[in-house]
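Section 5: illustrative case.
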């Protein structure tokens, strides 16, 4: 009497890839890169990956688990990844959990450089002097930069600003932000500059 062998065929599946890793914030038009991985094929075949950018678009399938994208509108998006078998492309994984990415509106004014300098005036002994460029593509009727003055322990002492009107596209503006808080000026150690209102 012969023996009949019975073999159970292992289902052909691809496991869910890892949540994409990459930056959590960016600006409209900025190219951001994301990476995934962690998926496997039950048959040991190589894999391909793609990304769902959360804005109705997808990356192309690729054997590289990294892709880049830029968004055209501000908002918060969920970036997800999916994997498939590169030999039997009908075998596709579930989507990964989402990586939250917050995209802000592109800045209309670009800070090129700045430095904190002593200023020979007892009522405003410090000045932040620097340069900013209109990158909005149109004339800015009003634009401002804000200077934050800190002590050595990184405690914010005061904030002042400088502004300009009718700044043409691609024009570089020299700004001067004076520290006028005389009661705290002797504690100023360093400063930062941020873009304020622009229209």
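Designed sequence:
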């Amino acid at each position: 009497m012969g023996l009949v062998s019975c073999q159970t065929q292992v289902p052909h599946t691809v496991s869910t890839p890892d949540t994409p890793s990459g930056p959590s914030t960016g600006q409209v038009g900025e190219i951001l890169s994301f990476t995934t991985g962690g998926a496997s094929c039950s048959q040991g075949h190589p894999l391909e990956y793609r990304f769902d950018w959360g804005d109705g678009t997808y990356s192309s399938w690729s054997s590289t688990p990294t892709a880049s994208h830029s968004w055209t509108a501000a908002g918060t998006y969920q970036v997800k990844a999916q994997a498939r078998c590169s030999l039997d492309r009908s075998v596709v994984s579930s989507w990964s959990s989402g990586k939250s990415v917050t995209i802000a509106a592109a800045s209309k004014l670009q800070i090129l450089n700045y430095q904190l300098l002593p200023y020979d005036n007892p009522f405003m002994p410090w000045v932040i002097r620097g340069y900013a460029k209109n990158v909005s593509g149109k004339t800015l009727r009003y634009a401002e930069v804000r200077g934050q003055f800190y002590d050595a322990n990184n405690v914010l002492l005061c904030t002042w600003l400088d502004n300009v009107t009718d700044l043409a596209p691609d024009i570089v503006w020299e700004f001067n932000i004076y520290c006028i808080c005389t009661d705290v000026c002797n504690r100023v150690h360093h400063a930062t500059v941020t873009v304020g209102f622009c229209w």
